[in-house]
Amino acid sequence: MKSLIKIFLLALVTVGVITLLAKLNYDSVIEKPNSDDSERITIQISSGESVDTIISKLVNAGILKESWSRYFKMYLKLNDLSAKIQAGTYEIPKNLNIKEIAQTIQKSKGLDLWITIPEGLRKDEIARILAQDLKSGGNDIFDENKFLSLTNDPEYISSLGFQYTLVDLEGFLFPDKYAFSVEETTEEVLTKLIDNFKSKVGNNDTYEDIIIASMVEREGYTSEDRPMIADIIKRRYAEGWLLQIDATLLYPRKDWKHVITKSDKEEDNPYNTYKLQGLPPTPICNPGLQAINAVRNPKSNEYYYYIHDTNGYAHYAKTYTEHNINIQKYLSN
After folding, report:
1. How many domains in the chain?
2. Are 181 and 123 in a shared domain?
3. Which of 156, 174, 273, 321 might form a disulfide with 197, Cβ 3.0–4.6 angstroms?
């Protein structure tokens, strides 16, 4: 009998210790940040999704450690929060703890204004798209003129922490698909584009790299010809050639479809690479990652000239004579 009592008491103590340790571990885990990374991840929760499905999304997005899934589920259950999760699109930093994640997904911010910024647009084109799409989605706060003003505002630019001195944010408005709120301000919208550039591109490229990438974006049509063109531009620049990039002539005109004339090539403006040696003073568009990577990893070749035929295929030449032959062959009517 005494032996049974001892066994029973030992079992109670063991259970108590295990429970206490589990509680201490639980308390510790729910207060720990998931990560040191403050990157914000966009995640969508649909109406009627189960807690398990939501947890899987959080884990797959890197917002919640997989080993913490059971603690997150336990926290929701103990605090009766499962039914309070709201459907919506959320931007959740990776460095939240379990309590903060649970709190966040109870308050849908209405990030349902998805807007796509294509590669190769000027900042005025991007501002126009944002203004039209945000307004049609119910955001009356965004101001197109203020957006453009901020892109060359020295105080705002200096707050962004770029490694080089910038006077204009052309080239750094990263093309991507974005989720915006109806309550997002002009500065918040612009900062989101810049933060995405920093996240996707990084801060290791030189300003010259971004300028060249912007030309590659407008001059290259495919993933095959962009590294070739990047190498040609970089070599012409390094060897002191006139770059003679047609897209730079179009930038001041704010018209990519303008038919270039002889007078365009003789015009005095800082973007005329037919007259002025070196790079234009700023990027001529906002390049995507493929163009930037082409500048980082150009495909070595011996060409100095290129054209695209009417079907978009690139043709290269080593000499000006060969270049003219290509023009006559592929572009003459």
Report:
1. 3
2. yes
3. 174
In a domain, residue 294? The reply is yes
Which among 191, 188, 192, 194 has a CA at the least distance from the CA of 178?
Answer: 192
Query: What's the distance, CA 105 to chain centroid?
Result: 23
Which H or E run includes 116?
Answer: strand 113-116
Task: Examine the fold and report which residue of 184, 200, 216 is the final residue of a domain before the chain moves on.
Answer: 200
Contacts from 191-196 at CB under 8 Å and sequence distance 24+? 191/160, 193/117, 193/126, 194/160, 194/169, 195/40
CA–CA dist 65, 72 (Å, integer): 10
Asked if 193 contacts 180 with a C-beta cutoff of 8 angstroms, the reply is no
Residues 132-145 pLDDT 10s:
999 988 899 999 99
State the pLDDT at residue 35. 86
Q: Which of 74, 92, 111 is the last residue of a domain?
A: 111
Instruction: Give the span between the Cα atoms of 188 and 109, in whole angstroms.
Output: 14
With contact defined as beta carbons under 8 Å apart, do 277 and 240 qualify? yes
Residues 46, 90: one domain?
yes
Question: Taking the model in full, what pTM does it have?
Answer: 0.76
Hey, CA dihedral for 16, 20, 23, 25, is it positive or negative?
A: negative
SS3 content of the chain, % helix, strand, coil (to 5): 50, 10, 45
Number of residues written out for the chain: 333
